[in-house]
Structures are given as structure tokens and as C-alpha cells.
User: Which sequence fits this backbone?
């Protein structure tokens, strides 16, 4: 008989599934101080804390958890913010289960410490008590850096560069800060007020935001260097929606997940006409995809009033890239997962609108390049899923609006910017890039990690006139 786990992991309270499916309020309700201390006390204070190696933004996890145990929450917040200027965001949307918590030694025989939930608790407590004052900044370096894109990579690079003493200006195409945090992740997972308050912290650091300013269409990228910026970081993300290329995708009632989520999240279409952007409200909605974006789209459709929502996925639940927590929440809310089913045609209802999704059943064959078993169509298994709205959530490509107006930038065949893998320098001197515009669509925390790497490289470039080789490494944790 296996020995019982010494201390049970403290669960986080959530809204009742029957209630939350009808509102856009945050699903997870957060820890109480007693819950947080009990969970933090599970940490066994490893001599070699592997959890730190699993964090792309290098948070000193044992140190902040120790402060939670001691009840010293301002100190815990200070520890986190030494390397992470978006803790309330990371505590909510980062895939800790595959990063810091995956490395936690308690996970070998039980459940790891809930590092993400503790980070969220510390950040929310900090905000409830007036927020953290900006750190003392060094003397101005006299150097100016342009950041293109106010998403996770850009915000992280901007904060770090400002703390290093450089003048930072962020150019953002949309009317609000956050990038995918604002337009892609729903209110019930990441309230926009949190994105706003994290951005306000950057303003305390002296970062300037210029909204409604798309670099490329409005300002050619090379002009930034010509008009006085000493370096540029490109963190525009991946914003070009992918489609399936099947008949009927031009019917009314078909959305890309990009448009659907942008309307709902950033433009608050769920509160129309209070806010001026409408969105079609389907009664029978089908979403194709198996990632977090598909889960977000399906759960938004439900909250908009859909009577039935199907997620159509060509593999099984076991292969879905979505976070397990998001999948579980979707199922709890009544969303149906149609496994081993692949759309082949959007059916016309006779009036130019979506009337259903014709699919073919799949079976799993040999593993493909991703390591997952490849779905293979079963001949003669066609079937139609009733639907009046169809959301395509099968990934994103690189938006070419910037790169095609900056001829000197090198891109790969997918349109992603080519960079040095260590320094994130592009082939254009003084220009660096990171996040989804380089790697393709990935996670918020990996984009933030790229922002940190780029900030160090840019600081080195501004001081020496050359790119770092070998790359600049992180300072030792305090």
C-alpha cells in the first residue's frame, strides 16, 4: 500500500458550472490567505529547486513561497517582480503543469505545489493593498528603444529595458495594451482589469504607450531607426488566422477564432449594445480545434447563449494540446467534445448561412512529426453535425503587415522572422524579435521569456554596439 501524501494539495474554489456558463465573470475564485499559506507550506524547500529551472521568466519560486508561509506577502511580491512584471497574468494563464510545477519533486509521488495559484494570490493581494511601488531606476542611459507590440513579449522587454535605464516607447496597433491577453483570452479566465493594472505598472516605470499605431501600415519599420531610436524589438505575435480550406468556409456564420474572440474579449461584444461591436449569437455552435483557443471560443459561445456547443477534434482528448483544467471546465459547463471527427464541408442551409458541418470519422494511425498518432479518415463514415455557427480555431500564422514593409528582415517560409537563437537579433543591426512572430503560436510565458532574453541582448547592444556572443545570461537568483 502506497504511503499517503503528507499534505494534500489545496484546491481552488470556482464558480458553480451551472452558474458560470451564463456569465463572463472569472471562473476560478482564488485562494484565501489560509488556503494560500496551507498550500505554500507543502513546499519541502529542496536544496536544488528544479521548479526554478522550469520557469521561463526565472522567478525565485522557493523564496517567494517561503515569504507566503511566513505571512510576508509584500516581500513575496517583491521577490516575484524581480524577474516577472506580469505575475497576476502568469498566475492565471501560464501552463504551470508543464513548466515549474512539472519540475516540482512532490509531483513524483503526488501533486506538485500549486505554484501558479500562489503567484496569483500574491499578485492579487498586492493589488488589493495599493499595488507595488516602482523600483528606483538608474540614471537614464540616453538610449531609446522602440517596442513593436504591447503583448506579453513586448511588455516584458519594455519593463526590463526601462529598469535598465533606457527610454522605452511601445507602439501598439490596437487601442489597448495586452496583445493576446486582451483580445484572445476571455474575461472569465483573465479579467481585462488585471491586464490594465499590469500595464499601469509599466507606466510607473516610465514606459510610454502609443496606441492605434500599427507599425508597417502606419509607420514603416525602418523609419523607427531613422528617426532616433537606438534599437527595436519586434513582438507582434502571430495574428494571421488559419482556415481549413474546405468548401463552405465563406458562408455566413463562419468565424475565425481570431475575429470571434477579438470581438467578444477586447471589444466586449457580449455586452452589446452597451459596447458598439456586435457578434452573431449562434444557438447550435461547432468549434473545430483542440487547443486553448478552441476551448475559449466554445466557452464564449456558450456564455453568449448557445443551446449546444460541440468541439470537433480529429484526435482524442488525450492528444488535445489544451490545458487539462480548461478542458475539464468546458466539459463541466456542458460543452460536448466530438473526438476523432474531422470537418470536410460546411453545409449551406439554402440561404447562404451555415446549416451544419459535414465531417468524416477518424482513427489514429502511426505517430507523425509531433509525436502524436496521426488521424486517418475512415472511408464511408461521413456524418453531419447540426450547426448554425462555425468557429475555426486551428492555429495562426505570421501576420505579414510588418515584415512586407521592412525588406531587410529575413523570414522563413511561414513568414516568421529569422533571429539568432541565442540573442534574438535579426539580420538588421539593432533590431531584435521574439515571441510568436519568431516561433509561431506558443504560450504567454514563452513569449515573456523571449522578451527577457531580448531585453538583455538589447542592453548589451546599446552599451557595446554589437550583439552578445555568447548570449547574456540571467543574473544569479537573490
Assistant:
Amino acid at each position: 500500500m502506497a504511503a499517503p501524501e503528507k499534505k494534500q494539495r489545496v484546491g481552488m474554489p470556482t464558480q458553480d458550472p451551472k452558474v458560470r456558463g451564463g456569465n463572463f465573470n472569472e471562473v476560478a475564485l482564488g485562494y484565501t490567505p489560509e488556503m494560500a499559506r496551507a498550500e505554500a507550506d507543502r513546499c519541502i524547500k529542496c536544496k536544488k529547486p528544479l521548479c526554478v529551472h522550469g520557469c521561463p521568466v526565472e522567478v525565485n519560486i522557493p523564496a517567494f513561497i517561503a515569504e507566503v508561509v511566513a505571512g510576508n506577502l509584500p516581500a513575496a511580491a517583491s521577490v516575484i517582480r524581480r524577474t516577472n512584471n506580469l505575475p497576476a497574468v502568469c498566475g492565471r494563464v501560464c501552463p504551470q503543469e508543464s513548466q515549474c510545477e512539472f519540475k516540482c519533486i512532490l509531483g513524483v509521488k503526488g501533486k506538485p505545489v500549486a505554484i501558479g495559484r500562489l503567484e496569483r494570490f500574491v499578485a492579487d493581494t498586492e493589488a488589493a493593498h495599493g499595488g507595488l511601488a516602482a523600483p528606483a531606476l538608474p540614471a537614464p542611459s540616453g538610449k531609446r528603444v522602440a517596442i513593436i507590440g504591447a503583448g506579453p513579449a513586448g511588455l516584458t522587454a519594455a519593463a526590463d529595458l526601462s529598469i535598465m535605464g533606457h527610454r522605452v516607447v511601445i507602439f501598439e496597433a490596437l487601442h489597448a495594451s495586452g496583445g493576446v491577453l486582451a483580445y484572445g483570452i476571455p474575461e472569465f479566465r483573465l479579467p481585462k482589469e488585471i491586464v490594465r493594472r499590469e500595464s499601469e505598472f509599466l507606466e510607473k516605470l516610465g514606459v510610454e504607450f502609443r496606441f492605434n499605431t500599427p507599425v508597417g501600415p502606419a509607420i514603416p519599420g525602418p523609419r523607427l531607426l531613422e528617426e532616433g531610436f537606438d534599437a527595436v524589438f519586434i513582438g507582434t505575435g502571430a495574428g494571421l488566422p488559419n482556415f481549413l480550406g474546405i468548401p463552405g468556409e465563406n458562408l455566413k456564420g463562419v468565424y475565425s477564432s481570431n475575429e470571434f474572440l477579438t470581438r467578444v474579449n477586447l471589444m466586449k461584444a457580449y455586452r452589446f449594445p452597451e459596447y458598439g461591436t456586435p457578434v452573431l449569437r449562434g444557438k447550435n455552435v461547432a468549434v473545430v480545434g483542440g487547443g486553448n483557443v478552441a476551448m475559449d471560443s466554445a466557452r464564449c459561445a456558450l456564455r453568449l447563449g448557445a443551446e449546444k456547443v460541440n468541439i470537433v477534434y480529429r484526435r482524442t482528448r488525450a492528444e488535445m494540446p489544451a490545458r487539462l483544467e480548461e478542458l475539464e471546465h468546458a466539459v463541466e459547463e456542458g460543452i460536448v467534445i466530438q473526438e476523432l471527427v474531422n470537418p470536410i464541408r460546411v453545409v449551406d442551409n439554402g440561404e447562404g448561412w451555415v446549416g451544419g458541418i459535414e465531417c468524416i470519422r477518424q482513427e489514429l494511425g502511426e505517430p507523425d512529426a509531433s509525436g502524436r498518432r496521426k488521424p486517418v479518415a475512415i472511408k464511408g463514415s461521413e456524418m453531419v453535425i447540426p450547426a448554425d455557427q462555425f468557429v475555426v480555431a486551428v492555429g495562426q500564422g505570421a501576420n505579414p503587415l510588418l515584415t512586407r514593409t521592412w525588406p531587410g528582415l529575413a523570414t522563413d517560409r511561414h513568414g516568421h522572422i529569422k533571429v539568432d537563437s541565442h540573442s534574438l537579433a535579426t539580420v538588421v543591426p539593432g533590431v531584435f524579435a521574439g515571441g510568436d512572430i519568431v516561433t509561431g503560436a506558443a504560450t504567454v510565458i514563452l513569449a515573456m521569456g523571449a522578451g527577457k532574453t531580448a531585453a538583455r541582448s538589447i542592453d548589451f547592444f546599446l552599451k557595446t554596439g554589437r550583439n552578445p556572443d555568447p548570449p547574456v545570461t540571467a543574473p544569479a537568483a537573490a
Q: What stands out?
A: Residues 144-239+397-464 form a domain with the FAD/NAD(P)-binding domain fold (CATH 3.50.50.60).
